């Protein structure tokens, strides 16, 4: 029992800190407002590391993947399936949230000027900068990711010189991750203080919107896990694939729920794939890659966070914002995989990219912490589905090549 609880220890501590901060803000607003500098210092420390974190982690990951270019068909399939399985839940939850307002008409009253939601969204500025120096700003994270992907591909295709650079990046990435881990020790105090100051001037009714939003996610997760998984399994193996999937998916799902870790569930997932009859060489290649790339649950909750905050701030959720939300959800799912405190860094990604007030970060953290377990279950279970689909796709490609020969 204690072992299961320890898996959620960090989330529990963070939630308690936020609850205490919220209670302090509502009962003693004068005191809570004085705590804001503490929270601001913590956020500034994370802002200082976010650019090197994203640049190095994305570049090193892509550089390592291109070392496996001889497995090109499988890698392309992994990427296509992962992107699709991130887009589908993001679009689905957005449709559900647009039908059932997650904020219930409650508006968050902030003094900070909001930089988004007014006029047309400039996709050119979101995706590129006109100078290298612009890539060093946290406001241009999407452009940084695009350039990091291109750099990673270039390193992977540069032979021995590229391998030396890739090795250096891996070492640097380890150091960056350790810095993030150290900074995250201050998360309960920093975020608790910041949330206290945010809630100091808000209507207590805002608390009820959290329950409504989280409930919406749990309902959507159940529907997606049952219907979506069955559809994916059918695409991967027809009726037999559906039967094999549900016969073997419970153990990985239970492991994911108990550990709240896709990586910890990997051995169980590989065993389940073997029991399902998936070829060992396919499972051994795909599942370790999918652990970091196939994050449908993370994409789903990211999309819900964005539309919830837009509703809470009274901003118009336009078609342009819808499109960029899906893009952010997919990219965020890729970037935060395997990063200590990655889910929290995802909140920074959302806020800085969309120009939202910093006061919304603790609100996003609460939603992310409570929904972490079901999100992980979706990630892990759909890794099995993705492997089914990839096996069927690669087998078809092999047969087509044999016919041509």
UniProtKB/TrEMBL annotation:
| GO BP | dicarboxylic acid transport
A Pfam family cross-referenced in the UniProt record is: SDF
Q: Which UniProt keywords apply?
A: Cell membrane, Membrane, Transmembrane, Transmembrane helix, Transport
Which compartments is it annotated to reside in? Cell membrane
Q: Tell me the GO molecular function terms.
A: symporter activity
- InterPro entries associated with the record: Na-dicarboxylate_symporter, Na:dicarbo_symporter_sf
Top-rank taxon: Bacteria
For this protein, the parts annotated as crossing the membrane are 41-59, 71-100, 132-155, 175-196, 216-235, 297-315, 321-341, 348-370
Q: Which GO terms describe its cellular component?
A: plasma membrane
What is its membrane topology?
A: Multi-pass membrane protein
Q: Which PANTHER family match?
A: PROTON/GLUTAMATE-ASPARTATE SYMPORTER, PROTON_GLUTAMATE-ASPARTATE SYMPORTER
Its protein name is Sodium:dicarboxylate symporter
- Taxonomy of the source species: Bacteria, Pseudomonadati, Pseudomonadota, Gammaproteobacteria, Alteromonadales
């Amino acid at each position: 029992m204690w072992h299961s609880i320890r898996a959620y220890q960090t989330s529990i501590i963070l939630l308690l800190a936020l609850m205490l901060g919220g209670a302090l803000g509502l009962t003693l607003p004068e005191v809570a407002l004085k705590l804001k500098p503490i929270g601001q210092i913590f956020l500034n420390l994370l802002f200082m590391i976010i650019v090197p974190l994203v640049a190095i982690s994305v570049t090193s990951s892509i550089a390592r993947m291109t070392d496996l270019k001889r497995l090109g068909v499988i890698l392309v399939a992994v990427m296509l399936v992962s992107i699709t399985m991130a887009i589908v839940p993001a679009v689905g939850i957005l449709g559900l949230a647009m039908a059932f307002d997650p904020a219930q008409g409650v508006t968050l009253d902030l003094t900070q000027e909001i930089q988004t939601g007014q006029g047309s969204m400039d996709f050119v500025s979101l995706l590129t900068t006109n100078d290298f120096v612009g890539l060093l700003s946290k406001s241009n994270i999407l452009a940084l990711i695009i350039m990091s992907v291109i750099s990673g591909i270039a390193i992977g295709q540069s032979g021995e010189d590229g391998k030396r650079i890739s090795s250096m990046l891996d070492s640097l990435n380890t150091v960056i991750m350790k810095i993030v881990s150290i900074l995250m020790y201050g998360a309960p105090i920093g975020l608790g203080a910041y949330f206290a100051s945010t809630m100091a001037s808000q209507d207590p009714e805002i608390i009820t919107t959290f329950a409504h939003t989280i409930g919406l996610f749990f309902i959507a997760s159940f529907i997606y896990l049952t219907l979506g998984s069955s559809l994916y399994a059918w695409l991967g193996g027809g009726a037999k694939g559906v039967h094999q999937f549900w016969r073997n998916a419970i153990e990985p799902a239970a492991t994911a729920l108990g550990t709240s870790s896709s990586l910890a569930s990997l051995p169980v997932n590989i065993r389940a794939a073997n029991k399902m009859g998936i070829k060992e060489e396919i499972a051994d290649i795909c599942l370790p890659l999918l652990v970091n790339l196939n994050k449908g649950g993370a994409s789903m909750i990211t999309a819900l966070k964005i539309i919830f905050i837009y509703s809470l701030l009274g901003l118009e959720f336009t078609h342009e914002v819808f499109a960029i939300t899906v893009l952010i959800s997919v990219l965020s799912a890729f970037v935060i995989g395997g990063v200590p405190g990655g889910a929290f860094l995802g909140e920074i990604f959302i806020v800085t990219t969309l120009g939202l007030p910093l006061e919304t970060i603790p609100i996003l953290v609460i939603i992310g912490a409570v929904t972490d377990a079901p999100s992980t279950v979706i990630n892990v279970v759909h890794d099995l589905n993705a492997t089914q689909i990839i096996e069927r796709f690669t087998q078809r490609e092999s047969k087509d090549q044999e016919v041509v020969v």
